[in-house]
Amino acid sequence: MQTIRSLFYSKWSSDVRLDGRTAIVTGANTGIGKETAKDLAGRGARVIMACRDTVKGEQAARDIMREVKGAKVVARQLDLADTKSICQFAENIYNTEKALHYLINNAGVAMCPYSTTADGYEMQFGVNHLGHFFLTFLLLDLLKHSAPSRVINVASGAHAMGKIQFEDLCNEKNYHPIKAYAQSKLANVLFTRELAKRTEALGVSAYTVDPGMVDTELIRHAKRPLQEMIKRFSFFVKSPAEGAYTIVYCVVSPETKLITGGYYKDCAYTESSRAGKDDGTALKLWAVSCHMLTIRWR
Ligand SMILES: NC(=O)c1ccc[n+]([C@@H]2O[C@H](COP(=O)([O-])OP(=O)(O)OC[C@H]3O[C@@H](n4cnc5c(N)ncnc54)[C@H](OP(=O)(O)O)[C@@H]3O)[C@@H](O)[C@H]2O)c1
Fold first, then answer.
1. Which domains, ranges and CATH numbers included, belong to the chain?
2. pLDDT digits over 161-194, tens only?
C-alpha cells in the first residue's frame, strides 16, 4: 500500500536548516500540526506548540523531544475559540520571544454540531477563521520586526464548496456542518490573499496550504456515513507526516520560488477555486472580521 501510495504522493524532502528561527504552530498537539512541529524542530527551529489543551500540548512536546535530539519545543496554551485566551497567548509571546519568523495557522475544527465560541460566534467560523485572523493581527508587529517572515494558513480543498454568507456568517438561520466548514476554509484562502497584499512591502509573506486528505482526528465530529466513505478512500489518504509536507515546503522554500498570497498543494503552487480569488469578497470579509473582533486593521 505504501509503495502504491507513493506513486500518487511523491515524497518531498529538503535538508534546509532553520537554526535561529522561531515558529508558532497552532493545533500542534496532534495530526498535521504535531508533524509540522516535529519537522521544524528537526531542522533546528525553536517551535512554540500552541495548543488548546495544556496536558495534550505538553505530552506532544515531550513526544517530539524524545524523537528529535535537541528539539527546542515548548507547549503554550491557546484556545482559538476565546479572544481572551488569544490575547493572553500573544502577550506571553511578546514577553518571551525576541522574534517570530513563521506563524503556522493550522488548528481546525470540522463539521461539528452547532456550538459557539466564548465570544458567541459559530465555532468553525470562529476558530478556523476569526481566531487565526485575530492571532495574526496581534502577532503582526513581531512578524514585521522579524522580517522576512511568513504566515501559513492551512485551508482545505473543501474551500471550493464554500460561500461566504455575509447575511448569515454564523449560520444562525440555517446551520449545516459541512457548509460551515467549507465557508471557514474559503475564509482562510481569502484572508491569505488580502493579508499578502497588505504585508508584502513589510517583508511578511503569506501562503495558503491545502494538505490534501490526511488520516487525522479531524473528522471526529462528522456523521458516520461520511467517516465510512472517507475510510473507503483510505488508499489515497495521506499520513499526518505526508500531510505536513506542503506546510514545511512553504516554510523552507526560497521566497523567490513562492508566490505570496498563493495556494499550495502537494508541494507546488496551484490555483484555488474562483471564489478563493475574489478580491472583492476578500476585502469585505476583512472589514467584517475587524468589525466582529472590534479591531482596526488597515
Ligand atoms: N485531515 C484532513 O484530511 C485535512 C484536509 C484538509 C485540511 N485540513 C486542515 O488541516 C488542519 C489540521 O487538521 P488535522 O487534520 O491535523 O486535524 P486534527 O488532528 O483534528 O487536529 C486539529 C488541531 O486543532 C486543534 N484545535 C481545535 N480547536 C481548537 C481551538 N479552539 N483552539 C486551539 N486549537 C484547536 C485541535 O486541538 P484538540 O486536540 O485539543 O482538539 C488539534 O490540535 C485543519 O485546519 C484542517 O482544516 C485537514
1. 19-293 (3.40.50.720)
2. 999 999 999 888 889 999 999 999 999 999 999 9
